[in-house]
Design goal:
Distance between the termini: 50 Å
Number of strands: 6
Shape: globular
Largest sheet: 6 strands, mixed
Helix content: 10-25%
Strand content: 15-25%
Amino acid sequence: MTFKELTKQQDALVELIASFSAIAGTTFSSTSDGRWFSWYDTETDTDWLNIVVDDSGVCNVLIYSSLTNDESKMYAAIGYCTFNEIPLEINEEGKEPTINEEGEKPTINKRNIYKLHIVKKDKDND
């Protein structure tokens, strides 16, 4: 068996899955194409923390803030994404997207989605 080195995007995905498993728990699900990973809240009985891999292989995070009762985990995930400059969207409507059998990308109502834009501080001007 030959070991192939992970691409930069694959490495980022593995690191994000490991980090979110430490934050939100080790039980998560994924789509068969490996583009959507979700962590489940047992109290609300829904997926609330999601990694969505876009067409270029970049990891994006989608959090359904109203679908978790554990705000400390949610804020830990937000902090992790902010610190590591991972694109993050927060949906407060509490509606999960549906993925059809053809594996088409979900459509999301954009009314209550907030994108966090990371601004790097210049260390010399702090």
